Amino acid sequence: MIESAAVAKLRHPEKAHKPDNPVARKPDWIRVKAPMSREYQETRALMRQLGLATVCEEAACPNIGECWKQKHATVMILGSVCTRACSFCNVATGRPDLLDPHEPAHVAEAVGKLDLHHIVVTSVDRDDLDDGGAAHFAETIRRIREAAPATTIEVLTPDFLRKEGALETVVAAGPDVYNHNLETVPRLYREVRPGARYFHSLRLLQRVKEIDPTRFTKSGIMVGLGETREEVAQVMDDLRSADVDFITIGQYLQPTPKHHAVERFVTPAEFTEMRDMALSKGFLLAASSPLTRSSYHAGEDFERLKAARLEKLAASGAGA
Fold first, then answer.
1. Is 37 annotated as a binding residue?
2. N or C: at which end does the chain have fewer Cβ atoms within 10 angstroms?
């Protein structure tokens, strides 16, 4: 849903001075139905009851109706206000609130009430915290393990830029999947992701595998921001050099007129080509479609990821 300029100004004060970018009409292959199901309403009510934020709502995800109908939600911890000001993101920017010490327990409670087999936990960037929120991530993982030992856990973390030891804290807590998104190609970082550093993010993913080679790693990018096919291929090569297992590729959608414009809508056929390219480069799994997002079908993808690793190990054993 496109917000008015007035609402956008409240959520994104750093963008208020920017000229409006017209919001392009979406092609037929991207349009989705408005969320109306009973399950959607129940999931929304539970999140309100527990005082939890979700990236599904905060980032205006187009898949919210489908996912919440299945009672799948990506919980966003560390509050709902981000210290970064990325030009693509609809999460509110500003001075964050104090951490809620009850948030990890509330996330675990939501996992139980939704009877989740797989949970994705993400967060805003918290550059104001000494550890970037790493200890809060770790406590959330521990609480989920206590409440629902059979539930698998995927974290989608910030880059923990200049936060010594933060990554190690999260990995030590034992998530099943460690996800950190590169978001776009290096040439566009200054414009799209100005507070981040491409090679730092790449190194973070590589470091996860150095700490624990058995940990699944995952990263995602958006297309339609002005990148070239060659640049996307280079990002794939960079991720494979960091031994990343799983890549997601989705269409960038402009949240408001104050955000980065959509340079073009990538066709479904091109997404299929990018998926095939990624698999040819050695990723265990690649999800690539206009509506693909980091946590879209995450539970099913985790099962596919495990199966792909077993298949690869079996093949290498047979060839030994």
1. no
2. C
| CA-based radius of gyration for the chain | 19
User: Is 60 exceeded by the pLDDT of residue 4?
Assistant: no
Which H or E element spans position 6?
helix 5-11
> Does 288 carry a binding-site annotation?
no
- The two beta strands, 81-82 and 118-123, are unpaired
Residue 288 backbone phi and psi in degrees, to 5: -145, 110
Which residues are CB-neighbours of 123 under 8 A, at least 6 positions away? 76, 77, 78, 133, 136, 137, 156, 157, 158
Confidence at 187, pLDDT banded by 50, 70, 90: very high
Buried b (16+ CB within 10 A) or exposed e, 171-205: bebebbbbbbbbbbbbebbeebbeebebeebbebb
Tell whether residue 61 is among the known ligand binding residues.
yes
Strand partners, 154: 120, 177
Domain range enclosing 128: 5-319
Cα atoms in the 13 Å half-sphere on the side-chain side of 277: 18
Strand partners, 177: 154, 216
| φ and ψ of 60, to 5 deg | 55, 50
| Residue 3 predicted with pLDDT over 50 | no
Q: What is the pTM of this model?
A: 0.89
Number of domains in the chain: 1
Q: Which residues of 81-92 are buried (b: 16+ CB within 10 A; e: fewer)?
A: bbbbbbbbbbbb
Q: Is the dihedral of CA 298, 301, 303, 309 positive or negative?
A: negative
CA distance linking residue 257 with residue 2, whole number of Å: 8
Q: How many CA atoms lie within 13 A of 239 on its CB side?
A: 34
User: Is 219 annotated to bind ligand?
Assistant: no
Residue 168: which CATH number? 3.20.20.70
**Bigger pLDDT: 266 vs 38:** 266
86 annotated as ligand-binding: yes
Contact in structure between 204 and 160 (CB atoms under 8 Å): yes
Q: pLDDT at residue 155 above 50?
A: yes
Q: Identity (one letter) of the amino acid at 247?
A: I
